[in-house]
Design brief:
The chain is of the alpha+beta class. The protein is 41% helix and 22% strand. The protein is globular.
Length: 860
C-alpha cells in the first residue's frame, strides 16, 4: 500500500489547543450539492497553528473576523485545514459544499429514502465541515436548516427550536439551539417528508416535555411500543439514578439506512428503523425486547455520554459500558431478570470471548487504533458493562448509586476518563479501587480454576482458586485481576442452602477460601449471576451438576449447570472422534426433569433446553473441524428430540394459546412452545407441525419460528412457505430482512448457492447495511456449517468485502472478522483463510477500516 494507515496511541494524547465558545451552522440543503456555513467563536489556549479536521469538503469561502483569508494564511490537505498564525480570540467562518446523495459510507450528512440525516460518531462531523473533531472539544451549537418546503417539511436538529421562517423562493428555515455544550459527534440534522407521532411526558419535577417519533408515512401504527418504552425509560432513570431530562423536547427519527443500531445525539436520536418499528404481525417478541432496550440505552446516554462524555475515543467504554449496564438493569427490572441475564451471558460467551481470543483482542480501554470505527466492539460495550456490573457487586446497590451521583456531580459538562469514573466511585464509598483499573487496560478472558478440599474431621471445606489470563496481541504478560465470585453452598440431595450467598474477591494469582461447619454433601453454587466475565473450570462431577440443575435457587447458576453438562458431552464426544452423537444417561435424565418441571418460568425452561452455541463450544477445541462439531451438535439435539418426543409434543400443545397477547406470561409461553418446535422439527413429523403453525400464526414470533423450523431442516413445505411469506411482506423492508436472513442461515453447504441467488434479488442492495447484514452477515458470521463447508465461500466473502469497501468501509470491515479467526480451525482451513485475507490486502489501497482488521488478522 502506498499510504499505509498509521496507528493512534493513547499515550500520545494531548489536550486541545483551542476552545470553541460557540458554533453557528447554516445548511442550504440539496441532495447533490449542500452548502454549509460554519461560524466558530474560537479562543486559543496555546500558541501555534490551529488544525481543524475536514474530509471530502470543497472550500467555497473562509473569513476571519469577517475578512477573507489569503491562501498563505491557511493550508488545506486531505485531512483538514490549518490556520498558520491564529489570533488569541477570533471568529472563523468556513463555507463548504458537500454531496449527501453520493455518501454511501453513511458518515456525515447523507440521504436515506429521500430524507437527509446525519451520523457523526465517531468522526463523521469532519465530513460536514472543518472542526476540531474530537470529543474533548465541547461547544454550544445553533443550527439553521434551509430547504424546499414541499419536499422537506420537517427540519430537525439538536436542542429546542427557536425560529421558523417561510422564504419567498418556496423554501423554509428552522433554527435550533442546544444550550448544553457538546462535542461535535453528538450533532444531528434530519430533513424530509416524515410523519410525526406525538406524546407528552411529565418529569419528576413537574416539567412538561414534548415527545416526538418521526417515521416514513404509513409506519405511524408501528411506533406505540417505542413511545411507551421511551416513557418507561425516562421514569426509570428518574427513580433509579435520579436523572431527569433537560431539554423541552425529545425526538427519535427512524431511518432505513444506518450503520449502527441507534445514535444518542442530544435531543435528536437517529435510529435504525428496526429498533423503532413494531407491530405484533411484523415484529417478534425478541424485536419488541430489543426495541425497548435500545430506546432506553440511547435515552440513558443523555447523562452517561452526553452531559458527561469521554475525553478521547480510547475512553469509549466510559460512556458505552456504563450505559449498557444501565440498559441491562432497566431490562431486568421490566422482564424476567434470569432470562435477561442468560441472554446477555450467551451473547458475551459466543461473541466477546471469541474477540478476546482473536487477533483483534483489545482491552476495554484500547491502547491504540488505526480506525476507531473498528472498536465499537463487544469488548468495549458488553465486557465494559461487565466491569461496571462487578463494581456494582463490590459496592452494593446503595454504594454504586452514591458513586454514580458523585460522578455526575463532579463531571457534568465535562469530557473525562475511565480513571475519573473509578475515582468518583472510590471517593463516594471511601474505598481504594485502584487495583480494579487493571481490567481496563488488560485484554483477554481470565481463566479461573477451582479445586475443592474437604476435611471431614473439622468439617472444613477449602476452595482453592487460581487465575490466569492467556497472552493476547501486544500483551504477552498478564497480571492478576480483581474477580468477584458470588457463591453459595447447597445440599447435594435436597438443594437446601447450607451457606447463604456471599461474594469472594479473588485478588491474587492464587487464593484459598475456607468454610467451617460444612457437611460433606455440600456442593458449591459458583459464579452466581455470572458475577465476572471469566471462564471457570471446576471439579464438580456430572451428578453434582445435575443436582444444581435441579435444585439451585440462583436461576443463572441452575441454567449454567445444564449448559456445563451439555458442553461436557459435546467436547468429550468430539475429542473421541465421533461423527454421530450419543445421548448419555445423566443428560437424558436431566432433560426429562426439565421438561416435567411445570413450576418454573417457561421462558427459563426454554433457555435451559437450548444447547450451548456452536461458537462457544468451539472456543474449547484446538484445530476445530466446524462441520464435525455441527454434526455432533445437531445430532445431540436430534437424540434429545427422539428420546423426549412425547414430552416435547405435550409441551408444544400445552403452550398453544387461543389468541395473541403481549404480556410477559404469553411471551414466555411462546418461547417455550417454539423451543419445543425447534426440537420437533428434527423429527419426521416436525415438518407438518411447523407448516401448520405457520398457516395458523397470528403474530410474527410464531410465524418466523415455524418458517425457521421448515427452512433450516429443508422440510418439503419450506419452499411454499417462504414464497408465501415473501409475497405477503414484499413491501416491508424490515420483515423482508428476516426472510433474507432465514435463507442465509440454513446450515448446509447448499446454502452458499442460495446466498448468491439472494444477492441477485431485486430487493438486495449493497448500499443498505441491514440487507447486507441479513444476507452476507448471516451466512458468513452466523452460519458456520455453511460458511466453512462450501467450496469458495472464503474467496467469495473477500470479494464482497472489497466491493463494500468502496461503498461503506465500516460495514466492510466488520465482514472481515470471520476470516481473522483462522487460528481456530484445522490446517486446510487456516491456509485457505490466510490466503484470502492476504488477497484483500493485495487487492488495492484499502480503507483504514478494512486494512486494520485484515492486517491484524494476518499478524496476530
Amino acid at each position: 500500500m502506498s499510504n499505509t494507515p498509521q496507528a493512534i496511541h493513547l499515550q500520545d494524547y494531548t489536550p486541545p489547543n483551542c476552545r470553541i465558545d460557540s458554533v453557528d451552522l447554516r445548511f442550504e440543503l440539496d441532495e447533490t450539492a449542500t452548502t454549509v456555513r460554519n461560524t466558530l467563536a474560537i479562543t486559543m489556549l496555546a500558541d501555534g497553528p490551529l488544525f481543524l479536521h475536514g474530509q471530502q469538503l470543497a472550500l467555497l469561502a473562509i473569513t476571519l473576523d469577517g475578512e477573507p483569508l489569503s491562501e498563505g494564511e491557511y493550508s488545506l490537505d486531505a485531512h483538514g485545514l490549518s490556520l498558520h498564525r491564529p489570533p488569541q480570540r477570533f471568529s472563523l467562518t468556513l463555507t463548504s459544499r458537500i454531496h449527501p446523495a453520493a455518501n454511501t459510507a453513511l458518515e456525515g450528512l447523507y440521504v436515506s429514502g429521500g430524507n437527509f440525516c446525519t451520523q457523526c460518531e465517531a468522526e463523521g462531523f469532519r465530513k460536514i465541515s472543518w472542526y476540531p473533531d474530537r470529543p474533548d472539544v465541547m461547544a454550544v451549537f445553533t443550527t439553521t436548516i434551509v430547504a424546499d418546503a414541499k419536499r422537506y417539511p420537517v427540519l430537525l436538529s439538536n436542542g429546542n427550536p427557536i425560529a421558523r421562517e417561510q422564504l419567498a423562493d418556496g423554501r423554509h428555515s428552522v433554527t435550533w439551539h442546544d444550550p448544553f455544550p457538546k462535542p461535535c459527534y453528538l450533532f444531528a440534522l434530519v430533513a424530509g417528508d416524515l410523519a410525526c407521532v406525538r406524546d407528552r411526558y411529565t418529569t419528576v419535577s413537574g416539567r412538561e416535555l414534548a415527545l416526538e417519533i418521526y417515521v416514513q408515512h404509513g409506519n405511524e401504527d408501528k411506533t406505540a411500543h417505542a413511545m411507551a418504552s421511551l416513557k418507561r425509560a425516562m421514569r426509570w432513570d428518574e427513580q433509579r439514578y435520579g436523572r431527569e431530562y433537560d431539554l423541552d423536547i425529545y425526538m427519535i427519527v427512524a431511518v432505513d439506512d444506518f450503520n449502527m443500531g441507534a445514535m444518542e445525539n442530544k435531543g435528536l436520536n437517529v435510529f435504525n428503523s428496526r429498533f423503532v418499528l413494531a407491530r405484533p404481525d411484523t415484529a417478534t417478541d425478541s424485536d419488541y425486547f430489543h426495541i425497548e432496550s435500545v430506546i432506553a440505552h440511547e435515552y440513558f446516554h443523555n447523562w452517561s455520554g452526553n452531559r458527561v462524555t469521554c475525553r478521547d475515543w480510547f475512553q469509549l467504554s466510559l460512556k458505552e459500558g456504563f450505559t449498557v449496564f444501565r440498559d441491562q438493569q432497566f431490562s431486568a427490572d421490566h422482564h424476567s431478570p434470569a432470562v435477561v441475564r442468560i441472554d446477555q451471558v450467551r451473547q458475551l460467551r459466543s461473541l466477546q470471548f471469541a474477540e478476546d481470543a482473536g487477533p483483534m483482542a483489545h482491552p476495554v480501554r484500547p491502547e491504540s487504533y488505526v480506525e476507531i470505527n473498528n472498536f465499537y466492539t463487544m469488548t468495549v460495550y458488553e465486557k465494559g458493562a461487565e466491569l461496571i456490573r462487578m463494581l456494582h457487586t463490590l459496592l452494593g446497590e446503595q454504594g454504586f448509586r452514591r458513586g454514580s451521583d458523585e460522578y455526575f456531580r463532579r463531571h457534568d459538562g465535562q469530557a473525562v476518563t475511565c480513571e475519573d469514573f473509578i475515582a468518583a466511585m472510590a471517593a463516594a464509598n471511601q474505598r481504594d479501587l485502584a487495583g480494579f483499573m487493571r481490567w481496563y487496560h488488560q485484554a483477554g478472558t481470565p481463566r479461573l480454576t477451582l479445586r475443592r478440599e474437604y476435611d471431614p474431621t473439622s468439617q472444613t471445606l477449602s476452595l482453592h482458586l487460581s487465575q490466569q489470563t492467556p497472552a493476547t496481541p501486544g500483551q504477552p504478560d498478564k497480571q492478576p485481576l480483581w474477580v468477584p465470585l458470588r457463591i453459595a453452598l447447597l445440599d447435594r440431595e435436597t438443594g437446601a442452602t447450607l451457606l447463604a450467598e456471599q461474594v469472594l474477591l479473588l485478588e491474587g494469582a492464587e487464593q484459598c477460601f475456607r468454610f467451617e461447619g460444612v457437611s460433606e454433601g455440600a456442593v458449591p453454587s459458583l459464579l452466581r449471576g455470572f458475577s465476572a466475565p471469566v471462564k471457570l473450570e471446576h471439579d464438580l462431577d456430572d451428578q453434582e451438576l445435575a443436582a444444581l440443575m435441579a435444585h439451585d435457587d440462583d436461576p443463572f447458576a441452575r441454567w449454567e449447570s445444564g449448559q456445563q453438562l451439555m458442553l461436557r458431552v459435546l467436547l468429550q464426544q468430539y475429542r473421541e472422534g465421533r461423527s454421530e452423537a450419543e445421548l448419555p444417561v445423566h443428560l437424558n435424565a436431566a432433560f426429562a426433569r426439565l421438561l416435567a418441571d411445570t413450576e418454573t418460568d417457561p421462558a427459563l425452561r426454554a433457555e435451559a433446553m437450548a444447547l450451548p452455541p456452536l461458537d462457544y463450544v468451539g472456543e474449547f477445541i484446538e484445530a476445530l473441524d466446524p462441520l464435525r462439531l455441527h454434526r455432533l451438535h445437531q445430532g445431540l439435539q436430534r437424540a434429545l428430540a427422539l428420546a423426549h418426543r412425547a414430552a416435547l409434543l405435550a409441551g408444544f400443545e400445552a403452550h398453544r394459546d387461543s389468541g395473541y397477547a403481549a404480556d410477559a406470561k404469553a411471551v414466555a409461553r411462546r418461547q417455550f412452545r417454539n423451543q419445543c418446535l425447534a426440537y420437533l422439527a428434527l423429527l419426521p413429523e416436525g415438518g407438518e407441525l411447523a407448516a401448520a403453525q405457520y398457516r395458523q400464526a397470528d403474530n410474527m414470533t410464531d410465524s418466523l419460528a415455524a418458517l425457521a423450523a421448515l427452512s433450516r431442516q429443508r422440510h418439503p413445505q419450506a419452499a411454499a412457505a417462504l414464497a408465501d411469506f415473501a409475497q405477503r411482506w414484499q413491501g416491508d423492508r424490515l420483515v423482508m430482512d428476516k426472510w433474507f436472513a432465514l435463507q442465509a442461515s440454513v446450515p448446509d453447504a447448499a446454502c452458499f448457492a442460495e446466498v448468491k441467488v439472494l444477492m441477485g434479488h431485486p430487493d438486495f442492495s449493497l448500499t443498505n447495511p441491514n440487507r447486507v447484514r441479513a444476507v452476507i452477515g448471516s451466512f458468513a458470521m452466523r452460519n458456520p456449517a455453511a460458511f466453512h463447508g462450501a467450496d469458495g465461500a472464503y474467496a467469495w466473502l473477500a470479494e464482497q468485502v472489497i466491493a463494500l469497501d468502496a461503498l461503506n468501509p465500516q460495514i466492510a470491515a466488520r465482514l472481515v472478522n470471520p476470516l481473522t479467526q483462522w487460528r481456530r480451525y484445522d490446517a486446510a482451513r487456516q491456509q485457505a483463510m490466510r490466503a484470502v485475507l492476504q488477497g484483500v490486502l493485495d487487492s488495492g489501497e484499502r480503507s483504514a477500516d478494512v486494512y486494520e482488521v485484515a492486517s491484524k488478522g494476518l499478524a496476530g
